[in-house]
Write a structure and sequence with these properties.
Blueprint lengths: L1 E6 L3 H12 L4 E7 L2 H11 L3 E5 L7 H10 L7 E6 L5 H9 L3 E4 L4 H12 L7 H9 L17 H11 L4 H8 L3 H15 L4 H10 L8
Parallel strand pairs: 1-2, 1-3, 3-4, 4-5
Helix pairs in contact: 2-3, 3-4, 7-9, 7-10, 8-9
Keywords: DNA-binding, Phosphoprotein, Transcription, Transcription regulation
GO molecular function, one term: DNA binding
Protein name: DNA-binding response regulator, NarL/FixJ family, contains REC and HTH domains
């Protein structure tokens, strides 16, 4: 069962999301909050698999709520998905850097919304190749930073990270590297641990920020 926490200051939107999620046999909404501070308290109480968090809220906004969840070892299993009206903007970018697993635009189709919740629950990043390219563009004019643990990566781990940054799934990485999906997942997970990345979204950012992967021309 996928346990979901809804955090949004608009009751009507929360009700709509809840009604949609409650129809699914494998998803359960465990709590609702109207601001980030309340959401953080409920996350600690219920330990959901997914926290769907609006990016702009009173008291504590979505970026700060994400940052606090990512920094709390007790909430390491909580995957934050940002809800936004505007797509990839500066707020969403900052939320991804703070530790969000991905983001969803609020006018998303119901079937795509449900699919995204399940993808995030598996620990995969909600970053389509088009979104990854927008993230990449952020680093084109910036000098690479030093990635923690970068020198500790094996050649196969480096290759796996490169493919994650190109938007490939574990199955696609396995096909490309001619290995099993389990081995591909192991390479990715070990790279995440060495680079101190909370999830695949942060792994993508760190890959470009560290200079391990460079934008294609």
């Amino acid at each position: 069962m996928i346990r979901v926490l809804l955090v949004d200051d608009q009751p009507l939107l929360r009700s709509g999301f809840r009604a949609l999620l409650d129809l699914e046999d494998d998803i359960e909404v465990v709590a609702e909050a109207s601001d980030g501070l309340e959401g953080l308290a409920l996350a600690r109480r219920h330990l959901p698999d997914i926290a769907l968090i609006d990016i702009q809220m009173p008291v504590v906004d979505g970026i700060e709520a994400t940052r606090r969840i990512a920094a709390d070892p007790a909430l390491a299993g909580v995957h934050v998905v940002i809800l936004t009206n505007y797509g990839l903007d500066e707020y969403v970018f900052n939320a991804l850097r703070a530790g969000a697993a991905g983001f969803l635009v609020k006018d998303i189709l119901p079937e795509d919304f449900l699919h995204a919740v399940r993808v995030a629950a598996r620990g995969d990043a909600l970053l389509a190749p088009s979104i990854t390219r927008k993230l990449i563009n952020r680093y084109v004019a910036q000098p690479p930073a030093t990635g923690k643990g970068l020198k500790e990566l094996t050649n196969r781990e480096r290759e796996a990270v490169t493919l994650v940054a190109r938007g490939l799934s574990n199955d696609q990485i396995a096909d490309h590297m001619v290995i099993s999906s389990l081995t591909a997942k192991t390479h990715v997970n070990r790279a995440m641990a060495k680079l101190h990345a909370r999830d695949r979204a942060q792994l993508v950012i760190l890959a470009y920020e560290s200079g391990l992967v460079t934008p294609r021309a």
